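Following up on my earlier thread - several people asked me to post the actual chain instead of describing it. Fair enough. Here it is, all 223 residues.
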Amino acid sequence: MRASDAERERVAESLRDAVAEGRLDMEEFEQRLEAAYKARTHGELEPLVRDLPAPGSVVAVGPAAPAARRTEDEVHWPSRIGHAPTSAGGFAFWSGFSRKGTWTVARRFTAFAMWGGGDIDLREARFEDRHTVLRLFTIMGGIGVTVPPELTVRVKGFGIMGGVDGGKASGDGTPGSPDVTIFAYALMGGIGVDRKLRKAQKERLRLEKQRETREKRERKELG
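Reply from S.P.:
Thanks for posting it. Predicted structure:
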């Protein structure tokens, strides 16, 4: 049977509910969503939601299941440690550099910015070694580092006629996390380290809020 636009949209909505509840990670959600909009028949749509319960339902599980269940907010660190590095440093002079996405951090990473800036994002990064050192230097420039909440980070350093802001980012991550030490030195410039949610986590929170708003509206309409 040929699928209609309305049927494709219903499947897409089920997938959005599933990722909001943590039943799908963002990568699988995006793959299934793309397949749903490309589907032409019921046979192509049905497998996309076959393993998903109705939104909001509770599935009975054994006592050990909550601890063993993998949620969207968890990071599987073993799969992200031990890769060949794709970058061991960054350099900016009257310009800028950026390291973000699924790049691999060398165990010793050095960055320098003069009259320029750098952006280092570790939220989706992989690591050559569990113990990683970032050495950051800036002269009349700036370097920003973004780390996920699950990563163990230590920030050390100082600024001269400038500043190093990373004290709030220092702290332990989840079990198995890489241990990242950041040495930061700024001369008439600034280096900042911030903890921010990963893209998948932000998308999940957005979808959850969207679903809650929709449910409130539906309850209000029902009186």
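DSSP finds five helices and eleven strands in the chain. That should answer part of your original question.
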